[in-house]
Amino acid sequence: MIERHAVPSRRAALRGLVALGLVVFAAGCSMSPRNRGEQLREAVYGYNDSVRWGRIERAAEWIPVADRGGYIARKRAAWAGMAVHEIDVRHVDYNNDQSQARVRVLVTFSRTGNPVLQRHLVEQHWKWQREGWMCVARRQVAVPQAAPGADPRDLY
């Protein structure tokens, strides 16, 4: 007697693939999506690390598309005469719905041919947009001064 083995039909194979796809999709949906805080942390790190190492085009990924051309041109000009030695994230402040954030970073740099290190405290304004977090503005802020009459050496 000849035994017959069931050979799956194409339709059965297709049903199996669809079922597998649904399982994978359901597993992906059940995982919690990264929250905006985690996404901001990744964006701030990615942007500032790219600036630190002179990867201007990579840093521009976190700049709104309309501003990227000017941003890249300004950064190239700045990098021709300066070197960034360190960027240290100091403070992150969200608004209530986590759609905007202010990030303060301390940038340590020197000018070409000048060994003196300079430090600027910079405030970055980040906004949540369709593409994710975008750095929409950057400006130097004044370092808070000690109270009148206080001796700065008392701080350390």
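(the above was protein one; protein two follows)
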Amino acid sequence: MPAPTNFLQNLKKTSALTPDEVIILEKKYASKKFKYLDPIEQILAVKTLLLKIHVITGWVLPGAELKNILNDQFHKKIMEEYSELNPDEIEYAFRNKGTGLEDWGKEVNLNLLDKILIPYLDARFAISQNEERLLPVSESIPWNKEDFINKYRSEIEAAFQAMKKGYNPIIHIYFEETLREDGMMLEAENIHEFLVRKLGSNCDNLYVKEN
């Protein structure tokens, strides 16, 4: 759901967020996330983004046959790891940081794309946390225990995915309690031993959302 325009306008008038952080929030709500686009929209967005990335960064696009493969792999990469982003955000990330990479003349590849999108996603996550704290309090239906447990599970999964990318997220005390209640941890291991075991097993996810 898009953030209220008035809320973003009010943020610009305060010192709660920097101008760059406000821009990221604006881009976050500028268009539909990739996961909400239909397959045709996704394919068209990927093709357009690769052309824009080529113009912004100077990275070389491969020939026709390899370009088709690149389009396919970039599409899969976005849906697997960056589906929470929208096309406007990805374009902004490259326009904002892509020109600073000393990779002129290189062909576009997934590794180069990660160099921009992983830091952007990390910054976006931190800004979104600040956004939640700044949102005006509204009356809502009280959460029950299952609501909180599902929220904890979502946070655990986000932390696990961040660790897989090489980051060191905060491991909250309720992570271990939640995992034990879900029967996922061995009786003798602690939260850190559990995470090391899962990372070592090349596990894709700790929790998978049901459709």
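Reviewer note on protein two: The mean pLDDT is 82.
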